[in-house]
Write a structure and sequence with these properties.
The structure holds two protein chains of two kinds. Chain A is α+β, with helices and mostly antiparallel strands. Chain A has a single domain, classed as Ubiquitin-like (UB roll), CATH 3.10.20. Chain A is built from two helices and five strands, in the order βαβαβββ. A five-stranded mixed beta sheet of chain A has the order 2-1-5-3-4. The two termini of chain B are about 25 Å apart. Chain B has a single domain, classed as Aldehyde Oxidoreductase, domain 3, CATH 3.90.1170.40. The longest helix of chain B is centred in the middle third of the chain and has 19 residues. Chain B is elongated. By secondary structure, chain B is an alpha+beta fold. Classes of the chains: A alpha+beta, B alpha+beta. Chains A and B meet through strand 4 of A and strand 4, helix 2, helix 3 and strand 8 of B.
Chain lengths: ~80, ~140
């Protein structure tokens, strides 16, 4: 299945792009997608402890199941206002 | 309903929309862009958001503010993109029967905006260089 990953702020700059499409095995979970991202984007490494991750616009945990077409987002610490 | 806007925030329009006959208080908070941060001069700021999720977070804060603080209304508008110094980057307007709950609710709403909305601020410094402002991890 394919999922889209959106990068924001520091994550976008470190990844060098705003989004990427990943191919994952059926039945994959968020943790599987994050493992692929960590491998393909080593520049994200210092950010991981600080990132929140959303799936389809909601904060998600590593065991969250993913479905075809899911939109993931890597969200650095927020600083609106 | 909350808004994310690319240009100047229309404060007069927000205030006019907040006024109502059953309320004796309208509190307006404006967050404005500062030209300095930790000893460095900031030339301009830039805001980025995960739009659909940010809008949902602002709308949730509007609803929770009304429910928790027994106020009549809460409206939140956040500006995105480049914002020059001294301009408004965020506005929170609360209307209530009395001022005490309006002040409390407005402060609470603004604190929630800062901790729950996926919005990021980048400072561009005089003489070059830029940095993302340290923020709060979403939970």
């Amino acid at each position: 299945m394919k999922v889209t990953v959106l990068f924001f702020a520091q994550a976008r700059e470190r990844a060098g792009r705003a989004s990427v499409e990943l191919s994952l095995p059926e039945g994959g979970r968020l943790a599987d997608a994050l493992a692929v991202l960590a491998r393909e984007h080593p520049a994200l490494e210092p950010l991981w402890p600080h990132l929140a991750v959303a799936v389809n616009g909601r904060l998600a945990r590593p065991d969250t199941p993913l479905a075809e077409g899911a939109e993931l987002a890597l969200l650095p610490p927020v600083s609106g206002g | 309903m909350a808004e994310l806007v690319e240009g100047p925030i229309e404060v007069e329009r927000l205030l006019a929309a907040a006024a109502r006959p059953d309320c004796g208080a309208v509190v307006l908070f404006l967050g404005t862009t500062r030209d300095h941060h930790e000893g460095r001069r900031v030339e301009r700021l830039e805001y980025e958001a995960y739009r659909p999720m940010a809008l949902a977070a602002l709308e949730q804060t509007e609803r929770e503010t009304v429910e928790r603080h027994a106020v009549a209304s809460c409206r939140i508008v956040h500006r995105l993109g480049e914002v020059p110094p001294a301009e408004t980057s965020v506005a929170v307007v609360v209307a209530a029967a009395h001022r005490s709950e309006a002040f409390d609710a407005c402060r609470w709403a603004m604190d929630r905006v800062k901790s729950t909305a996926p919005i990021w601020k980048k400072e561009h410094y005089a003489g070059g260089g830029a940095g993302w402002v340290a923020g709060a991890k979403l939970e």
